[in-house]
Design a protein that fits this description.
Layout lengths: L5 H11 L3 H8 L5 H4 L7 H8 L6 H32 L1
Helix pairs in contact: 1-2, 4-5
Amino acid sequence: MDVPSTNSCRKIAEFSRVPLMKILLYAGHVPDAREAFPDSWPAFGDYLRGKYPDTLSEDLIFVIEGLIEARRHRKRSSTRRWRSRQGASS
């Protein structure tokens, strides 16, 4: 499969109004950090507890973590559907 040059990716991004980093990611010029290092990111709840120890309650931190995890799950499943459609069309 031919990979478009970074200059072509820039032109595609400008024309389609899609962020350049997304085009570079799909073209294979940039590694997907979310898939490459998912376990190296600290838990968001731990970050919140350290950053706002007296401001946020445990219940609120739990809700925020749940929302983030739900969003990650939706993004992962939509990426899988997109990739499976791409594989079926080629």
